[in-house]
Sn-glycerol-3-phosphate ABC transporter ATP-binding protein UgpC
Amino acid sequence: MSSIAINQARKVYSGNVTALHGIDLAVEPGELMVLVGPSGCGKSTLLRMIAGLETITSGTIAIDGRVVNTVEPAARDIAMVFQNYALYPHMSVRGNLEYGLKNRGVGKQDRQALVAEAARILELEPYLERRPAALSGGQRQRVAMGRAIVRKPRAFLFDEPLSNLDAKLRGQMRVEIRRLQKTLDTTAIYVTHDQLEAMTLADRLVVMNAGNIEQVGTPTELYERPRTTFVARFIGSPGMNLLEAAALAAHGVDLPHIVPQAGCTIGIRPEDIVLGDDPRPAISLAGRIEAVEILGKESLVYVAVDGVDELVTVRAAGGRWYAGATEKLILPLANLHLFNSGTGQRLESKSSPASL
Ligand SMILES: Nc1ncnc2c1ncn2[C@@H]1O[C@H](COP(=O)(O)OP(=O)(O)O)[C@@H](O)[C@H]1O
Ligand SMILES: [Mg+2]
């Protein structure tokens, strides 16, 4: 098991594009760390710098305490799994699994043993003599992972490996990758733009935004205490509602004293709003239902509220909600998240409820 330590890593591409602004990150041995963020935020750049496929403009990257900035990719002893599996089409599964080992001069007996072990772990034994064309997408993905496993690398790096698969298979492969990573006990960094994938896979996750890290934490920590409005919106599905306190007050909404009325953004998750009545201390709003999406047991209800630019999203039980109806929205104080409207940073306040 290996550690990866990133210190003030910056990347400026030619043409003066700054992709990373100075990243600090410590990945613990055996950890599955997920980098998540919108397209273009620098996830692939960071991963490729760790793999050695991209130069580091300044700062350091260390693997097991050794700075690898100028170490060749092959000598870093790290395996990368890509979205397009990059399998050799003219070789069997066995050939694909063995290829890298052969290149490295691993003897025949050792090769066979390593391939057999990987095939067993990945349940690829029945397919060893097939060509990639005769495999399903999920099986090909497993072969791609098998090629990484047989090398017994210090770490696995995954760059959106499941993007080409359909939703159901993606869900299955997610579970499989996590199980595999824990079985092999190998440090891994996994890149995705999909917050659900990030939440379900990660030991810890790193939310990135425009070349910076917004927050690092466990899925629960990020869900319960997002440090910025960006993380609040990005983590959770649908993301957190954000309402300006001053605009609500201007529309006659009664705000409790824990909510500063100037420069404060109130955050509340769709699953934390109650439609109708609730006895808890709360902010009470009224709004008109604009749209309803029935999910089955629950519905997503989109409500227009005076003083709020975007529709407020509510995850409500049942399907008895109708567009056009006026409803009461209860925002329990214990569920509020408060942010500085200017900086987007979470407000910490001694007098606020525990969840703030
Ligand atoms: N080879 C390159 N040359 C110039 N700019 C690049 C190159 N690769 C990526 N970029 C830019 O760097 C930023 C980060 O890209 P990338 O790391 O691919 O983001 P992500 O993987 O999060 O989508 C983007 O603005 C992208 O356009
Ligand atoms: Mg990318």
Notes: The chain has ten helices and 18 strands.
